[in-house]
Amino acid sequence: MARGDVQVAKSSNGAPSRERIVVGAADMISRRGLSATSIRDMAKHAQAPLGSTYHYFPEGKQQLATAAVRYTGERIARSLRKELAAGPAAGLRAFLDLWRGIVVGTDFHAGCPVLAVAIEEPPADELPPALAAAAEVFDQWEGLLADSLREHGADAEQAAQVATLVVAAVEGTVALCRAKRSTEPLDRVAVQLQALIDAAIKS
Question: Which of 24, 62, 78, 152 could bridge across to 6 with cysteines, CB 3.0–4.6 Å?
Fold first, then answer.
């Protein structure tokens, strides 16, 4: 979700589209986290009036954050589905390349909005919808990878374990890249994850 991604189409009446606002929110959350970002900040980042934002998201910040998480999840899932058609190794490369593009393209200012939402401390008495959406997104990514691993010879349990490890490792490595302002962590992790996938489908 590089800053340029915010520049999407307006609706037919000239108002900012719902998608534009969601993309802007995802980008803002990926940079500043959820707690430090108000719905006003998200609207401004998307170059959308606050009134238009509340028109699409009358329930406020959590509703918009949930939409941003789901948008990110499906965007990456589409890429994974396409690349996994060529096998789990191709899917892994695509997953790594996508995050590499985001951290480099934003000069290490942006990470993963799904992770940013997931690490927020929820209220003691409730499960925020954005957090529930983040869990669903991680499950979706893991499921796609696990399915591909099984299709290429890994047993079900091993496929599930490797898929979880891939998602967890890449998400954590994106944070390392931002902190170190370097893609070296991704390069190192890529080698080890590739070896794990090769071993899983050959075992």
Answer: 24
